Amino acid sequence: MLHRNYSLMRELDKSLHGVQLENEQRCQQEIEDIKHGLESGSITYDPAKLKFSEEAMEEQKHCVRIADEKVALATQTYDLVDAHIQQLDQFMRKLEEIRQGKEAAAAVTAGTAVATTATPTVNAGATTADANPKSGRSGERGRGGRKKAKVPTEQSVPVPVPLPPIDLELPVDPNEPTYCLCNQVSYGEMVACDNPNCKIEWYHYGCVGVKEQPKGKWYCPNCIGFQKKRKGK
């Protein structure tokens, strides 16, 4: 799209240069004719009547139309770049939200693992006689009649399970039609091109730099150049 706009602006520059050159030559010739007429007396000096021909005035108006079209293309190009920057900002904010969510989930998992490690586990089937074979007692009590808690080993500490990677691509129905310059499905607020022959027809607000519903007719970046050329004719 940017390449197309730049190509159109270069073509308009060439066209404008040619029309300006022709108009300058025409105006210069008409000025010389007026000077000769005044000197010879064939033309009476009257400021109200001394003016350029209709052809020269029409060429100047055509130059203004070409300049206006160049300004419109430049504005459209700026809006297009700005729309892509806004879309990029949205993706970056989404990535930041996903990163923060992953960090929060990892912190919760780590906290659960620490709490499990700090809680000792008592094995009811184990006896102190297993750990101390020299003792002649077969009971489950040591000195003082208190049960000895078995110290948890490394095998009893749970290992945190790594989080699965998050897929940023949202599932899209392959049969759902796509629109806009971004070739994506319809979402959010969209605006329709008033050119009945527009190939895309519908556009997202952010992709074409629109913030609210346009008043009157609105043409997409693909159709605005051809529409202005048609008006110029």
Distance between the termini: 24 Å
Query: What level of helicity do the residues show?
Result: 40-55%
Mean pLDDT reading: 76
Helix/strand structural class: mainly alpha
Give the assembly state of these chains.
Answer: single chain
The SSE order reads: HHHEEH
Radius of gyration in whole Å, from Cα? 40 Å
Beta fraction: under 5%
Strand arrangement in the largest pleated sheet? 1-2
* Basic shape: elongated
Enumerate the spans where pLDDT stays under 50 for 5 or more consecutive residues.
124-170
The total beta strand count reads 2
Topology overview:
Layout: H1 2-40, H2 54-118, H3 128-131, E1 190-192, E2 202-204, H4 221-232
Helix pairs in contact: 1-2, 2-4
Comma- or semicolon-separated keywords:
233 residues, mainly alpha, two-stranded antiparallel ribbon, 4 helices, 2 strands, elongated
